[in-house]
C-alpha cells in the first residue's frame, strides 16, 4: 500500500453535513485535470458496487455505533482494494469525499466508539495508506442546518442528528486540523462559494 502512494496523490474532503464540501468536488476535479493529471473522483462510504450497498444500509438503518463502524470499514476495505490503491499505483490523483477521518469524527467523537479501536481497524484495512492532503469544510450549526433544510430532499439519519452530535463531530474535525497542520487544511465553509474556491486554490497550488 505504501508503494501505491509514491506515484499518485490522495486528497480527501471532510466536514460536517451542510458545510458545502460536495458543492466544490466537481470544481476541484476540473482544477486538477487542468494540470494534465488523471483524476479519480470517489466517495465513502461507497465507491464500489458492494460499498454502495453498504452505504445505503448505513445511511438508512438504525444500528449500534460499533456495527456502524464495522460496516464503514467493510465498505472501505473493498473501496481501497478495488479503486483507491489501483488508481494511486498508476499515478492518478484520487479525490475522495470522506475517508477514515470521517469515521473518527462521526462514529468516534459523535457516537462514542473508541478512537483507538477505529485506528486499529484502519491499520488492518489500509496499512500505510493515509491522505496526502485533507480539506475540512467547517461551518456553524445554524448555517449547515439551513442549507440542509433548503436542499429539498429527505435527510439521511446522520444529517438528521441533533445539534449535540453535530457539535461533537465539528469539534473533532477542528481538533484534527490543529493536530495535523501539515496534512489538514481547515476551510471556512460559511463563506461564499467564490471565496471558498480561492482558499481551495491556494491549497491545491501548494500540493
Quick structural gist:
The protein is α/β, with parallel strands linked by helices and 207 residues long.
Note down, in words, how this protein is organized:
By secondary structure, the protein is of the alpha/beta class. It has one domain (2-206): 3-Layer(aba) Sandwich (Rossmann fold), CATH 3.40.50.300. Helices cover 56% and strands 14% of the residues. The protein has nine helices and five strands. The protein has helices at 2-5, 21-33, 49-60, 65-89, 100-110, 115-125, 141-149, 163-179, 193-206; strands at residues 9-15, 39-43, 93-97, 133-138, 184-188. The protein has a five-stranded parallel sheet with strand order 2-3-1-4-5, sandwiched between helices. Helix 5 packs antiparallel against helix 6 (115-125). The radius of gyration is 16 Å and the shape is globular. The chain starts with a helix and ends with a helix.
Amino acid at each position: 500500500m505504501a508503494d501505491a502512494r509514491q506515484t499518485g496523490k490522495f486528497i480527501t474532503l471532510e466536514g460536517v453535513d451542510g458545510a458545502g464540501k460536495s458543492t466544490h468536488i466537481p470544481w476541484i476535479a476540473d482544477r486538477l485535470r487542468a494540470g494534465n493529471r488523471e483524476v479519480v473522483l470517489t466517495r465513502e462510504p461507497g465507491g464500489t458496487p458492494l460499498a454502495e450497498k453498504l452505504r445505503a444500509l448505513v445511511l438508512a438503518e438504525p444500528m449500534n455505533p460499533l456495527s456502524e463502524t464495522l460496516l464503514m470499514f467493510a465498505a472501505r476495505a473493498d473501496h481501497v482494494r478495488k479503486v483507491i490503491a489501483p488508481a494511486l499505483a498508476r499515478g492518478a490523483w484520487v479525490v475522495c469525499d470522506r475517508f477514515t477521518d470521517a469515521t473518527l469524527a462521526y462514529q468516534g467523537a459523535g457516537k462514542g466508539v473508541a478512537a483507538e479501536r477505529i485506528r486499529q481497524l484502519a491499520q488492518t484495512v489500509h496499512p500505510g495508506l493515509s491522505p496526502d492532503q485533507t480539506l475540512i469544510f467547517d461551518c456553524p450549526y445554524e448555517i449547515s442546518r439551513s442549507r440542509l433544510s433548503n436542499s429539498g430532499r429527505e435527510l439521511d439519519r446522520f444529517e438528521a442528528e441533533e445539534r449535540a452530535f453535530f457539535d461533537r463531530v465539528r469539534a473533532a474535525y477542528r481538533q484534527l486540523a490543529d493536530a495535523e497542520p501539515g496534512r489538514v487544511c481547515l476551510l471556512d465553509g460559511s463563506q461564499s462559494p467564490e471565496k471558498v474556491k480561492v482558499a481551495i486554490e491556494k491549497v491545491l497550488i501548494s500540493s
